[in-house]
Specification:
With about 150 residues, this protein is an alpha+beta fold. The protein has helices at about 35-45, 45-50, 55-65, 85-100, 115-120, 130-135, and strands at about 5, 10-15, 25, 30-35. It has 6 helices and 4 strands; from the N terminus they run E-E-E-E-H-H-H-H-H-H. Strand 2 (about 10-15) and strand 3 form a beta hairpin. The longest helix has 17 residues, at about 85-100. It is globular.
Length: about 150
């Protein structure tokens, strides 16, 4: 089962030693690894995304941890090709709503919705209804097809 490692810049923490001076220490985050299991778990959360509860479901840590998924290169999403059509549709809905609901999840032309839609189109399972739903649910002008040539 393929997995891809994505780069992340890490976070800073405040080293409070009790001295008058506080020192910020940069702690690099572990690389974000996306597997079919992780994508399936996100797809399963679509009902919470549709009800507007995505931030509370993922929690502050999860929102920060997974925000890097939104701007990964298109080729990294080939891992989703092993998912069912239903799971890919759920991911399209999840990432469309996540971009609207979660701070730091804005993706523009690098949205994962675009390569996921390409997978559905290659399978001839991208429906006009899903296209209309994406357009109605997002303010990202690049969705669902990406940048115009």
């Amino acid at each position: 089962m393929p997995s891809y490692v994505f780069k992340d810049l890490g976070t800073t923490t405040d080293d409070d030693t009790g001295d008058d001076m506080a020192i910020d220490i940069w702690e690099p985050q572990q690389p974000l690894t996306v597997t079919t299991e992780r994508l399936s778990a996100l797809a399963a959360q679509i009902s919470d995304a549709e009800s507007g509860n995505l931030a509370s479901l993922l929690g502050e840590e999860g929102v920060k941890r997974d925000a890097g998924l939104m701007t990964q290169p298109e080729e990294n999403w080939s891992v989703a090709e092993s998912l069912s059509n239903e799971d890919i549709v759920r991911l399209v809905r999840f990432f469309t709503l996540a971009e609207m609901q979660l701070p730091g999840w804005e993706a523009g032309k690098r949205s994962p919705v675009i390569p996921l839609v390409k997978i559905l189109k290659a399978r001839s399972t991208f429906t006009p209804e899903l296209r209309k739903w994406i357009k109605a649910s997002a303010d990202n002008r690049y969705l669902p097809n990406g940048a115009a040539l």
